[in-house]
Sequence to fold (419 residues):
Amino acid sequence: MKTIDSYDFTGKRALIRVDFNVPLDDAMKITDTNRIDAALATIRKVLAGGGSVILMSHLGRPKKNFEPKLSLKHIVPYLNHVLSLEVKFADDCMGESAKTLSAGLKPGEVLLLENLRYYEEEEGKPRLPETATDDEKKAAKAATKEKQKAFTKQLSTYADCYINDAFGTAHRAHASTALVAAYFPNDKMFGYLMNAEVGSLNKVMKEGKKPFTAVLGGAKVSGKIQIINHLLDKVDNLIVGGGMMFTFIKAMGGKIGNSLVEDDLLELAVNTLEGAKMHGVNIILPVDAIAASAFANDAETRIVKAGEVPDGWMGLDIGPESIALFDNILMNSETILWNGPMGVFEMPSFAEGTIQVAKSIANATQKGAFSLVGGGDSVAAVNKFRLADKVSYVSTGGGAMLEFIEGKVLPGVAAIEAE
Ligand code: AMP
Fold:
């Protein structure tokens, strides 16, 4: 496999799939530049190596072609600023401008293509009216797949090599994230962000040193069951917190009051607990909880035993004994994976469990453990409590990260790794 560090970019045009799907305000100003900033190292590497760059991305979910609010032209001023150059812009990723501008690119120059998703070919999914019949849908799907081949081929003609640095869309088998790689069998590679993401995930999921502890939280068991199943033959300890703990506690005969529960998953919870036993995995459930009289920050609260939430009350965080129990396990772990908050951390009254688990993970990391935090709310939590730089790696790719830890093959990763 080629790598960005060993590849000779001299005189080469690099087609880079980036994730510039950034939030814009009503004045079309970028409100969070993180995703763009994360791609800069890769862009700079190609330019410093004597190459030129063609950037391609999606922005939002356009429902029709050329929705002005979702144009990538809004990104150009910021790119000019951070790269200290004049970025060229092709106002149609399939049009004459894209062809001529890419053909004329000189070393050191950067071209940004207009939103790939203006074309339904990017995702390979036809945009049909809701009234379309099943037959019409089937025919349109086949036609779009066919058109997608031409779209992908067209993208490939713009460049000499292909770099995928868009981890956030690596779980999608789209033209720019996966299919185009086939046109560059000897000239395809990961960018630095992809390298870091895939490297960190592999370090945990494939090469994780023991003891390996996974901490799962968040609202629902249903959203995490595939992760749990995939982790059972990998981890030594599985800590379960958040709203999902109550489905397990109820399944074991505990009283949970009005706490969040998925009654249709009680049997599955029992099976999971048994499966864990068979795999020799230690499942650790909270022993106490913060019960509240209502779902509100100023509700009355009490510390209760986890299986003794009074009628009319609901568990909204883990309690102090659980915090100590989890800390002890985390401090004795060499590899840690964390996904999902321990309680309703958005409300200060129920944030303590999440804060303390984040701190335990930070302390274990300082002691030498490798820790990976990923998936929406746990990332929000480490950022909110300013602990992001105290863990080994914070994944930027919500859906892609979750699919990776569910054991799924990510098409964007596989396309680069394929011989
Ligand atoms: P998820 O998207 O499944 O990771 O869930 C994250 C959400 O779970 C956050 O918004 C939390 O507020 C919520 N959550 C965590 N613990 C609880 C709980 N005990 N009861 C209700 N919601 C919870």
About this structure: The chain is about 35% helix and 15% strand. The chain has a mean pLDDT of 96. The chain has two domains: 13-197, 208-405.
